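Box 3.1. Reading complex inputs
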Amino acid sequence: DTAVSQTPKYLVTQMGNDKSIKCEQNLGHDTMYWYKQDSKKFLKIMFSYNNKELIINETVPNRFSPKSPDKAHLNLHINSLELGDSAVYFCASSSRTGRLKNIQYFGAGTRLSVL
Amino acid sequence: GIQVEQSPPDLILQEGANSTLRCNFSDSVNNLQWFHQNPWGQLINLFYIPSGTKQNGRLSATTVATERYSLLYISSSQTTDSGVYFCALGFGNEKLTFGTGTRLTIIP
């Protein structure tokens, strides 16, 4: 069973479209994240949720809207896609408690290409 | 914010060689992880090592928190070790700040 799963794996779309990426974790974690990896492989945090509550919102355009319906899911919706949004988006999760606390586990990534 | 510097940026080695990757950081942290991003883009957890030394097969890692650096050792390299190695740091389960990575290429 995949611990942190993202869908879709690849997303190719036109500029101006709206798209969503879904993330689910089956690890029982209470914290979930979205990271963005640019073309130079640099990874940076976008958002963090703990128990469905937004904890971190880095300097991200408000075209990006995360939604956490429950602790196991954190989805990312992007409005009015721009060329510069092309990147790989990674979902991650961790727990604040337990033997493996604070260790972040990453999904396989979603490669977004905006044409 | 935390500054994270990794060296070297690129490393090309023959199969069987050993290597040491370094991660320097600017502030005290209590969360430090090493990741391997394989050629397919997956981020694989290698170590959670805010301090001390750990070993897992051919890989080991040491973090000297008081001197703000961590080292990742890879012995007897194999072609499957190729990829980008990242260290990432933070506090508790807050965000991780990633270094710029070391790209390792193992030549058969």
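In summary: Chain B touches chain A at residues 30-31, 33, 35, 37, 41-43, 45, 48, 84, 86, 88, 92-98, 100-101 (CB under 8 Å).
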